[in-house]
Amino acid sequence: MTIAVYPGSFDPVTNGHLDIAQRAAAIFEELIIAVYDRPLKDLLFNTKERVEMWEKAIDDMPNVRIKPYPGLTVDFARQVGAQVIVRGLRASADFDYEFDMALMNKSLAPELEMVYLVGKLEYLFVSSSRLKEVAILGVDIGHLVPKHVAIAMREKLRRVQGGLE
Ligand code: ADP
Q1: Which end of the chain is less packed: N or C, by CB atoms within 10 Å?
Q2: Which domains does the chain have, with CATH numbers?
Q3: Which residues, in sequence order, are CB contacts of 12 under 8 Å at separation 6+?
Q4: Ligand 1: does its nearest atom lie under 6 Å from the Cβ of 90?
């Protein structure tokens, strides 16, 4: 059985992420979406919130599970018995970053394969950071994220901007 891990910060999950997860779930027998607990960037949503948003997004995908992880992706992949790490590619900038990362992962865990899926055309411009940037300025991002994520985003921004978080 081939188990694949799809790792990321997912702050928050977007339709671009969901598309990659759906396509990976159609290729591999089991897909584990790995929500990185401690990325080196400022996050809007905490780990529990990012995990819950994914759980709601995949409730119709029986071979997909969500798990948070705190350390190296290759260590997590080994722990869950995965053979493959899946990532999405949007542009050459993603490729440059991923190329180095793939070589590093290969040197750390030669038995794991990195598999890259090119993003769907209509979501190639979608990144969590760009969505947060425009949502803060009042743009409706409802067509670019699952419905429950758009609602969570509005509520989070209301709380953050109101000084409640
Ligand atoms: P990171 O893992 O760098 O924190 P993200 O959590 O935003 O980044 O994304 C996780 C993975 O999903 C990465 O492989 C990223 O390239 C990919 N990805 C993000 N947005 C899209 C998109 N719109 N289309 C395809 N892949 C995407």
Answers
A1: N
A2: 3-161 (3.40.50.620)
A3: 44, 45, 49, 50, 53, 128, 131, 145, 149, 152, 153
A4: yes
